Amino acid sequence: MSRISTSPLIAAMRFALPGLFLMIGLLPLSNASQPNLPPRGNYTSVAAAANGGFWVQRMTPTVVVEFGTLTVDGAPQYDTVNEPGSIAAIPGTDKYWVVTMRGRIFDRGGAPYLCGGYLSSCSGFRSNERHIVAAAASPNGDGLWAVDNEGAVWTAGNVVSYGDVMHDSNQTPTGIAATPSGRGYYIVMNDGGVHGRGDAVLFGSTGGNRPGGHDLVGIALSYDILGQVNGYWLAGSDGGVHSFGAATFLGSTGGGPGRGAVSNIVTQRDGRSYAYVYADGRVEKSREAPPFVIQSVTTGKLIDVPEQSTAPHVQLGQAMANGSASQKWELIEHENTGTFKVVNVHSGLCMDLEHGAPGGRVIQYPCKDDAYPTNQLWVPVKNEFNAIELYTLEQPDYRLSGNPEEHGGGLMVASDNPSGARGWVLTPAL
């Protein structure tokens, strides 16, 4: 962990600005946020590293103010930033910026050097009038957005503003999260209002009502298998987590005694779960995201291992939902390539394309560790029926397809597409 420093300047600012609002870090599938916690204010933010660890920019609301950059769960360690700020991590990398309350920009891990290190140099930010409360990195790493306490959005690098929230609410922003395209972002307010700008699709909010009277302190985006936003989580300062859209609720602190205030929430590396950070810099993870069931849009049946077999070479088939683990699948992304191993929860074996002529049987087989197990790496694409099609790198012109009952009902890969028979819907197996 990095050393934490104490600054008389920050201590003085705490007493001079008692109403300051907390800033948030961002994630990569990333995000950022922070709250108003009277009487002192709290600025601890968190961001997710590519290896599953976290960076925390800590500022404790104690009598002696402590601040600095912490590393958690093996995230790469760089020089600490000895100012309160919001961490904006570039998705899928070990690079981030810290944007301080006063608008300084610190680059770490090879992130581009922006604006000469000062947000005022490229956006006209006036640190004597306002303070930054949250920042979000562009998904391709060429710049960032920062939102201030009055709702203005400032840019750095090769990004453009898609609008602010200065006239949409009398509340204070606590987080900003970029969409995967980089052509929009979400801004959450301390009363739980969520505003979408650019191509950000809204999935609801708390309706401007603070749950239990607690400020909302951050937003973390949930993603589907194609990497598109399908919902989000909002965190309250008491540790309550509120799910919207298809984001699955995976637990919270429940406002437990002695836990302390939660100051930020962030999407984990899998894009389907989250973690939150306390004011003192402790990071706590949600439960793991549930596995999927894979349902045919044509037959309504689920991909299944016949008789719950754990033997290799067994051809996969389709069956009516029965709740068995043999119908549940983990999708494990291969080296951030957008390809996935599809692993059966019951057998632990991978969905595999049996070698042979074009087309062929789909079986379960021990998962391979070689660099490019092409017949076990499945690529998801969306079809005209708004369902998912799957193909392997080995046979990109053929799609996963279920045979009709009269042909045994087993899974094959095929080149034709009768009435969307190749389409699948992936649903969390709750």
| Category from helices, strands and their pairing | mainly beta
Overall form: elongated
Q: What does the average pLDDT come to?
A: 86
Strand order of the largest sheet: 24-25-29-28
Backbone CA Rg:
23 Å
> Could you estimate the helical fraction of the residues in percent?
under 10%
CATH architecture of the largest domain: 7 Propeller
> What gap, in angstroms, lies between the N and C termini?
37 Å
Low-confidence stretches: 1-41
Give a concise summary:
This protein has helices spanning about 10-15, 120-125; strands at about 45-50, 55-60, 65-70, 85-90, 95-100, 105-110, 130-135, 145-150, 155, 175-180, 185-190, 195-200, 215-225, 230-235, 240-245, 260-265, 275-280, 285, 290-295, 300-305, 315-320, 330-335, 340-345, 350-355, 360-365, 380, 390, 400, 410-415, 425-430.
Question: What can you tell me about this protein's structure?
Answer:
- The longest helix is centred in the first third of the chain and has 9 residues, at 8-16.
- The protein contains 2 helices and 30 strands.
- The strands form 11 sheets. It has a 4-stranded antiparallel sheet, with no helix packed on it.
- Residues 1-41 have low confidence and may be disordered.
- The protein has 430 residues and is mostly beta strands.
- It has 2 domains: 8-285, Methylamine Dehydrogenase, Chain H, CATH 2.130.10; 292-428, Trefoil (Acidic Fibroblast Growth Factor, subunit A).
- A hairpin with a 5-residue loop joins strand 1 (45-48) and strand 2 (54-59).
- The protein has helices spanning 8-16, 120-123; strands at 45-48, 54-59, 67-72, 85-89, 96-100, 105-108, 132-137, 143-148, 153-157, 173-178, 184-189, 194-198, 216-223, 229-236, 241-245, 262-267, 274-278, 283-285, 292-296, 302-304, 317-319, 329-333, 340-344, 350-353, 360-365, 378-382, 388-392, 399-402, 411-414, 424-428.
